[in-house]
Structure formats: structure tokens, C-alpha cells
Amino acid sequence: MKGYLVLEDGTLFAGEGFGAPAVQAGEVVFNTGMTGYQEVVTDPSYYGQIVVMTYPLIGNYGVTLADGESRQPWIGGFVVKALCDRPSHWQAVGSLSDYLAQHGVPGLSGIDTRALTRHLRSHGTMRGVIATVADDAEPDQDQVAAWVEQARAFRMKDAVRRVTTPESYRIPGPGPRVVALDFGAKENILRELIARGCDVTVLPATATAEEVLALRPDGVVLTNGPGAPTDVPEAVATVRTLLARGDLPMFGICLGHQIAALALGARTYKLPYGHRGANHPVKELATGRVHITSQNHGYAVAAESLPPEVVVTHVSIHDGTVEGIAHRRLPLFTVQYHPEACPGPRENRYLFDRFLAMMARGAVSTCSA
Predict the structure, then answer these.
(1) Mind listing the domains of the chain with CATH numbers?
(2) pLDDT-derived band of residue 363, with 50, 70 and 90 as boundaries?
(3) Exactly one of 69, 198, 254, 280 is catalytic; which is it?
């Protein structure tokens, strides 16, 4: 197959198609991770996005049964420099191309991903169309123009509603009762809670505060997810009601961090090209320590909009954006990055231990400021 990627500004990249023959519009973003492509394509936070991997060789260890972050791929398309079509790994059950083809996801290889990434860094995240077709004919000007219009017409709609669990479910455990509000949760968040003995109930993103409280939880986790936090006002309202109780420990991750900030009265804004990868340095202000983190977000919390009772706990070394907040009085803390990342740095898993300690203490803030 031949493959093409056209951006909304008319820039065209041509290469070899893999995965499914398809024409798909989406938001074109880049990820700087060196490994973890299966986790990327199955991360619900990438719903509706065409992901460009900056590391040049992708697919060399194939696809395994254990490495997915959800039940299926959620990306709109996948773009790589060099695709390995003969993977070698003792757990591999197939190739990346076959896996994407099975789930209807188009891919593009053989292009200059460095040039594409530099273009996105210079001009910001763009909408685009990825097209992989069996026909060897070159696209004419009319076809390219149609793709450009398709890219410009793309809008991210109902992202969280599409990836959240359709029904609640429980994973029993001997420890504290935790409700996870699923805005697009990665499986590893649940694994970290289960590993600590938590009795976990996962609720859809549309769950009300009353439904959460009916389960008598010891704590609530606000998970990651796709899109803009302002697109899920019902989730913001639920969190605001839960915070008003003043005694329910809460831990927010990524989109959950942004939703909590909105519930507290802060604002969020879209970053020029987002933070996506497994190598982002973040400074913890209370200790001065710098952690290497895994990230996947296109929006950030506006620090100047936070109310006085909320403090910034972590900041990005790259651009100074807010990477964590905590409430001075309420038992709430959140981080913008992914402490459950796998693959990626494991040093941030202590945050789950902090959440368990907060549940054990009850209605006591973890804020040290």
C-alpha cells in the first residue's frame, strides 16, 4: 500500500501504508517515547489522534497480550519512520501492522518523522488526514484538496463518552474501597490500586456524585482520558459536589487533574503541541527533586487561575507548566503526568502509596505548604 499524511495547512507526506486500508482524519500529535508503542495505541487518551513516533524504529518487538492499556486501539492513525514487519520477542503474538489492520487503524511508514515533528513544534498541533490505500495511483490535486478540507473539518467530539466503560464493574480486594471515575482509564492505574489491595469499583464518566457516594468509598481516583476537560462539564459538576463534602480523599491523574482544577474554579488552556512521551522532567516543589515522568496531554491548568487554597506542587522543567496541585484543607492532590506509566519511569508510583496513606488518615490534606 501507499500511504499519505496531509495536514490542514496543505503539507503532504508520502510513504508506505501499513495496518488497515483507510482514510481517517484526526489531530496530529507526536510522542517522544523510545518504547511502548502498544501502550500508546491502546491508551484511550489518544482517542481521535494521529500519533507520530519520534523514535525511528517501531514494531521490533511486535504485539503482546499483556502490554495493552485497554481493550482495543483508540488512535486514529499511526506514523513512524521505520516499521519492523518481522518482530522478535518471546511474548509476541503478531506484528504491529497486523494488529492495527485487525482493528481498522491505518499506519504510515517511511517518512521523515523528524521533519514532521519539527513542523508541529513550529506551527503547533494540527489536524490532518492519514490515508492508506491499495491503489498505487498518485493522488491528484483535487484529492489532496479534499483531504485538506476533511482535515480542517475534523472536530474532537464526545471523546470521553466514547472511551469510558459503558457499565460499572468491581474488582474486589481486601483493602480500602476506591471508586475510579473512568474518563478513559489506562489499565495500569487499576493494576496499581489492585496491587495495593484496594477494592476497586470503576464507574462511567457520567456517574453522578450520588452514585459515587452510594458506594461508600474511602477514596476516589479521577483517571486520565482524551480531549479537553471543558468538554465534560457533567464530570466537573460531579467532582465539585464530591469536593464540597470536605472529607473524601481524591487523587487525580492527567485529565482527572484538569477536571479537579476546573471544579475548584481554575481555568485550563490548550498547549501549542502538548506533552507526550516517557522522558519529561518534573520538579516537585516541596523537595526540589526532579522526577522523570511519562506524559500524554494537550491541555494544562492555568496557574494564575488557581484559588488561594490550592497550591502548585509540581512544575514542568521544560516549560514551567503546572504538573501537580494540592488543596490546603481538603484531602485532594492531583498530577498532570502518569505515575502508573508502563513502560516508563517507575519512580512516581509512590503517589499511589500517598493516596492510600491519605485514605487511612481520612479527611486530612496532604498539602505541606
Answers:
(1) 2-155 (3.50.30.20), 160-361 (3.40.50.880)
(2) low
(3) 254
CA within 13 Å, CB half, 34: 4
Binding residues for L-glutamine: 45, 225, 227, 255, 258, 296, 298-299
DSSP assignment letter at 274: E
What pLDDT is attached to residue 138? Answer: 80
- What lies within 8 Å, CB to CB, of 341 at 6+ separation is 188, 278, 293, 294, 348
The verdict on whether 123 is a catalytic residue reads no
> Which among 275, 280, 297, 338 is annotated as catalytic?
338
pTM for this one?
0.95
Q: Is 254 a catalytic residue?
A: yes
11: how many CB neighbours lie within 10 A of its CB? 15
* 114 close to 54: Cβ distance less than 8 angstroms: yes
Reported as a single tens digit per residue, the pLDDT across 158-184 is 999 999 999 999 999 999 999 999 999
